[in-house]
Write a structure and sequence with these properties.
By secondary structure, the protein is an alpha/beta fold. It is about 30% helix and about 20% strand. The protein folds into two domains: about 5-60, Orthogonal Bundle (DNA polymerase, domain 1); about 70-325, Aldolase class I (TIM Barrel, Alpha-Beta Barrel). It has ten helices and 14 strands. It has a ten-stranded mixed β-sheet with strand order 3-4-5-6-9-10-11-12-13-14, covered by helices on one side. A two-stranded parallel ribbon has the order 1-2. It has a two-stranded antiparallel sheet with strand order 7-8. It is elongated.
């Protein structure tokens, strides 16, 4: 099976060019065709000689594929289904969220997920595959709405920091001059807190960081998220204090609201204490009910009080608008069923 060019970094392209004994400048030409002109075939790379295009085509395809299907929500949100390029009958989903002043794509980094968070549908299906950098980027480039995108969030299927190598490659291509040339401020990566990969991400990327927190108490967070046992939230916060988030890079915490589980004054007070001294914001998220789960969403009045208290403690706290619930595209609801 041929390898794919789409998703290769400039250094990886340079290695390919060197191995094939092509002119050194060819790697930049290929990157330009892939990430700026977004060609679908090697034959379209017309400033590369016919002979050299033949050499490339003997071993490589471009590797861009289109969605298998899509669903449209009543609120305008679109959910796209992709089959993984190198594994048949393995699928992922991504979600396009249009707003008056922006358009965001929520991309997946894995097919399935190992983390098994209690409140997440993706965690209910078995882990099947890490996505390559190309499979991550393909979600951005192959949808009809690609040219309208203003923001990317790595908040789809999977745990991005469980696939840190490919996630970092994809971020390099998105933000590098040879790639999409996006500002890192347009990209947010979410994690439940895999500490070694989180540190690597902070040191190697300038994109925004979002931490899935959901409970400030160790024992209670463990009931929701098994990762708490290996990477306690207090250790995550301690490490984050070593970095400066007061300038262009944003640090945020995602907090899904569960009725009587993490939405009491005791929790808001502990959360404010835990995050004291960090330059950050909190995104409150309504829980979206999933099958066979004994958790329930917090009442609107409770969420309002929770938000008001945190804002009074000078922690910018917002409530994320739920989008695409009618097509199972909202937070925690992605789960492919078209798998064999």
């Amino acid at each position: 099976m041929k390898d794919f060019l789409f998703g290769k970094t400039l250094n990886e392209l340079a290695e390919i060019i060197s191995r094939l004994a092509l002119p050194r400048f060819t790697s930049k030409q290929i990157a330009d065709w892939l990430y700026k002109k977004r060609v679908k075939t090697i034959s379209e790379m017309t400033n590369i000689s016919f002979e050299n295009r033949q050499k490339l085509a003997e071993e490589f395809d471009i590797g861009v594929s289109f969605p298998e299907k899509n669903q449209l929500s009543a609120d305008g949100t679109k959910k796209y289904l992709f089959e993984c390029r190198q594994k048949q009958n393995v699928f992922i989903e991504s979600v396009y969220i249009p707003e008056p002043d922006r358009a965001t794509l929520c991309v997946s980094s894995q097919a399935g997920c190992k983390m098994a968070c209690k409140f997440c549908m993706t965690g209910r299906q078995s882990f099947q595959s890490n996505l390559s950098a190309g499979e991550i980027l393909n979600q951005i480039c192959s949808i009809p709405d690609s040219d309208t995108l203003t923001n990317i969030v790595y908040m789809g299927m999977g745990e991005p920091f469980d696939n840190i190598e490919n996630v970092l490659k994809s971020l390099e291509i998105i933000t590098s001059d040879y790639g999409f040339a996006w500002s890192p401020k347009r990209v947010t990566v979410s994690t439940i807190g895999i500490i070694p990969a989180m540190i690597e991400f902070i040191n190697k990327s300038k994109c925004h960081l979002a931490i899935s927190l959901h409970n400030p108490f160790d024992s209670e967070r463990l009931q929701l998220m098994a990762i708490q046992k290996k990477y306690p939230v207090e250790e995550i916060i301690k490490i984050l204090h070593n970095y400066d988030f007061s300038h262009q890079r944003r640090l945020s915490f995602e907090y899904i609201m569960f009725d009587k589980i993490n939405d009491t004054p005791r929790h808001s007070e502990a959360l404010a204490k835990l995050l004291h001294g960090l330059d950050c914001r909190i995104n409150l998220i309504r829980f979206h009910q999933i099958p066979d789960c004994d958790l329930s969403p917090s009442k609107d009045e409770t969420i309002g009080k929770f938000q008001k208290y945190l804002n009074s403690k000078n922690i910018l706290t917002t409530l994320r608008t739920s989008r695409g619930t009618d097509i199972l595209a909202a937070c925690g609801m992605l789960s492919t069923k078209e798998m064999s």
